[in-house]
Amino acid sequence: MYPPILRSTISLSLLALAFAGSARAQEPAAPAPAPVPTVGPVAPAAPRGSAPEPQPVAPNEPREPSEAGPSAVAAPDTAAIAVGTPEPAAPAKPPREVPAWLDYFSIGGGLIVYYYQPTSGDGDNNISVFFANLLLDGKWEGFGLHVEPRFRDSKLRSYFDGPVWLQEAYGSASAGPVVIKLGKSYKRLGLFWDNSFYGNVQVYDGLKLDPNYGISAEGQLGAELGVDFSAQFFVVDGGSNVSLANRDTLYIPGARRRNAVVGRIAPRYQFGETGSAHVGVSAEHFTADLPTGEQGVTRFAGEAKLTLGTFGIWAEVLVQDGRHVSDFPYPGSSAAPPVPGRASGDNRYALAGAEYGIGPLTLRYNVSYADYHDVDVTELMHVPAVGIAANDHLSLLGEYVHWTRDTNEGEVDVDKSLNVTLNGHF
What we know:
The chain is mainly β. It has helices at 4-23, 65-68, 201-204, and strands at residues 36-37, 73-74, 105-118, 126-140, 143-151, 164-175, 178-186, 211-221, 225-237, 257-271, 275-290, 293-308, 311-321, 329-330, 342-343, 346-358, 361-372, 377-389, 394-407, 410-425. A hairpin with a 4-residue loop joins strand 17 (361-372) and strand 18 (377-389).
């Protein structure tokens, strides 16, 4: 079909020809020049956004004349277009190019859906999104940027500022085998984690999965026989670990952990494609700003881990000298007469675990222990578990928790529950 302007012009020309033919039958009619339709300039395609694998977007792609509104009309500078000549082809779209900066950027993320079912006591069951997260990474030669925001419907812990927080956020620079991180990053004390979801006594005392603000130098030397090492200085704690009420400095209003010096060294041996073993020692010293004054706290940890294909076994011992809380395991009371809380400054911790994978199925068992020696209190947590991996991005984990506390007053249950998590990531 012809454009509206061309159809109108052709109709007027035919009427003019008919009128002229009736008036001057002997005089040949000259053909009228046909207009050339135009649509105005076309903007180039916009750069692609930062969403995962987006399709290129051209916000100003060419439109049909009926959509573009009034069009400029220009007379041809060559021969006129005869009636019946096909419409000129639309101009080719500009090539869609991937911006070069995307070569240095990656994005990932995921979520954990958590179902909790107590098996003793009066607690209620619950289901929630434990958190969703994004993993944003940029790399430019020897420099990098890492940001991990996490978010949920409500605050994860009462002392959090809100339901959204930064788990890690740092800039990095590589110098040979060493990576230097500046910002908020995880503390490296003892074994990093035990491959569970529910965790251990140590994480609920603020000893693991604990990001802090400062500088961290981490690296590896050697291949088959080598060593992992790290040296860290944190000006202040990160305020976003998963410790429970009164079990870490973060719960005390106005209190912080400051000036933490942490070091770790772990010789390792790699044998075959799926076998590895390491032993390690690490230490930490920091100042706890408590309402009763500053307290120096020192920790030492020893660790070992062996992996053979889908089988793994690990263990850790950790000792602490100094108080980092003021009223755990015995909270204070404001009733008359007020009772001050009691905390231990001589703590001993241990954990051990093992797992074995059979196809998509993983069997796992973890046990952790704490001895708050000053106040004669111990805690023991057993966590047997079964995991099923649907694929590399989706898995289901069921854990049974049996957590007890033994005091001079008797043994009490901290938690006995079934915990099921659906973990998805991309």
